[in-house]
Amino acid sequence: MKLRQRAAVALATAATTVGVAGCSAFSPAVVLRPYDASDGRNTRVAGVEVRNALVVSPGLDEPGVVSVTLVNSSAEDASVTVSADLEAGDAPVQTYFVPAGELVQVGATQALALDGAETTPVPGEQNPAWLQLAQVPQHPGETVTMTFRAAGESAEVDAPVVLPCFEYAELTPTPAPGATAAPAPEVQCGAETDDSLQQADDEGEEEAATTGGDEQDTTGPGADTQSGPESGSGAAPTGGTAGQ
């Protein structure tokens, strides 16, 4: 009787194991799913890699700046056209020349110093460029559809809208020539990053260690044990001299 029970338990265990293994075999591995390990979105068009595409804007219906890195990993020079679908008026469009094996950083503040002048990309350097949006009809946290075109191909991404905080703090729109800059809305950037907090902790520990080394030990052999008039040289005399 016991032998039959043991056989039944073993059979049930084997069936359960096979069922679980079958689920794992037909389920896609999580590590094989594409994942953008950055704030923005990535794609590829005609041999040009589009990395970390996003829009920096302080709020709804406020101006914005496009931030994206174009990396030409092909053996041929490429011209990449970048546009943003804002669903409000004409979509801003800009074309960038990206030499073979080089990259262009759209949304680099160094481009503002060029003041629209034509420049030749420098080999081996991160060539700056600028693309500004007059109005972003999305809240930070929502997305803007961006299109990238090169060599007859096109690719779209839903670029997230982020606040001008931390590494994006300097990406603020510039006023048009002759126009007066409007006051920027107040932006709440939230808490510091973990790296900043860790750096502050390390600096605090170093300061505490330095301060502690300078303090004198008041309990060691060389410490001053004088604690008051009762134990000092001014104490009242004892013995027979007190009765004289």
Describe this structure in words.
By secondary structure, the protein is an alpha+beta fold. The protein has 2 helices and 10 strands. The protein has helices at residues 2-26, 194-214, and strands at residues 41-45, 48-56, 62-72, 78-85, 93-98, 103-106, 126-129, 132-136, 143-150, 153-162. Strands 1, 2, 3, 4, 5, 6, 7, 8, 9 and 10 form a 10-stranded mixed β-sheet that branches. The longest helix has 25 residues, at 2-26. It is globular.
CATH architecture designation of the domain at 41-176: Sandwich
Query: Do you know the CATH topology of the domain at 41-176?
Result: Immunoglobulin-like
Taken as a percent bin, the fraction of beta residues is 25-35%
Low-confidence stretches: 227-244
How big is the Rg?
34 Å
Structural class: alpha+beta
Question: TL;DR?
Answer:
By secondary structure, the chain is an alpha+beta fold. The chain is 19% helix and 29% strand.
Task: List the keywords.
19% helix, single chain, globular, 244 residues, Immunoglobulin-like, 10 strands, ten-stranded mixed beta sheet, alpha+beta, 2 helices
Give the arrangement of secondary structure elements:
Elements: H1 2-26, E1 41-45, E2 48-56, E3 62-72, E4 78-85, E5 93-98, E6 103-106, E7 126-129, E8 132-136, E9 143-150, E10 153-162, H2 194-214
Parallel strand pairs: 2-10, 6-7
Antiparallel strand pairs: 1-2, 2-3, 3-6, 3-8, 4-5, 4-9, 9-10
